Amino acid sequence: MQPPAGSQVSRVPAQRTPSEQLPPAPAPPAPPPPRRRMRTVLTVVAGVLALLCLGGVATAYVWYTRASTPDRSTPDVVVANYIQSFLADRNDARASEFTCKGGADIDDLRLLREDLEARELRFTAKISTSWESFAVQRQGDSANVEVDLVLSAFVDGISQSDRQRWRFETRHEDGWRVCKANRS
């Protein structure tokens, strides 16, 4: 409510306290602490990436080990791998991974490969080698594997093939290995 006009109350200036008697102004609020959310997110992302990298390295190592370790699980598998390496691919280093540790008596098979190479040069035709009809006779840590080698070529428009029966002696030495090869 307003005082009536002409009253003294309305003409009295408002009294103010001198500025030195005023309480100090409240300090401005402290700025909020910087958010650490970004740092936390980056730390979590870095941790996840590190784990993924380690998992990838471990997976790559396992795959590489499986891919580079020759399969010598059974006598017939080691003979097939040996024939593939020695006759089909003609890779002596790879073939040696399938032979007995003290060496293998494969002179007859080496003569066959030399003969195939000489015929390829003479007839300018590639002779392919395949195998079939495995027969395994296992006796403890030794096994004899008989297999038909099929030698095929395409010479002067004519397909030719030769089937030969071979006998491979294998032994279990840190996996199965070929120790001897003879034509049956």
The fraction of residues assigned to DSSP E strands is 25-35%
Give the helix level as a range of percent.
Answer: 25-40%
Alpha plus pi helix count: 5
Mean pLDDT across residues = 87
- What is the total tally of β strands? 4
What overall geometry do the principal axes of the alpha carbons give?
A: rod-shaped
Strand order of the largest sheet: 1-2-3-4
Sheet/helix structural class: alpha+beta
Distance between the termini: 130 Å
Largest sheet: 4 strands, antiparallel
Low-pLDDT segments, ≥5 res: none
SSE series:
HHHHHEEEE
* Radius of gyration from CA coordinates: 44 Å
List keywords for this structure.
four-stranded antiparallel beta sheet; alpha+beta
Topology:
Layout lengths: L7 H4 L25 H32 L6 H14 L3 H4 L11 H17 L3 E13 L2 E14 L2 E15 L3 E8 L1
Question: How is this structure best described in words?
Answer:
- This protein is of the alpha+beta class and 184 residues long.
- The protein is 39% helix and 27% strand.
- It is built from five helices and four strands.
- It has helices spanning 8-11, 37-68, 75-88, 92-95, 107-123, and strands at 127-139, 142-155, 158-172, 176-183.
- Strands 1-2-3-4 form a four-stranded antiparallel β-sheet.
- β3 and β4 form a beta hairpin.
- It starts with 7 loop residues before the first helix and ends with a strand.
- The relative contact order is 0.12.
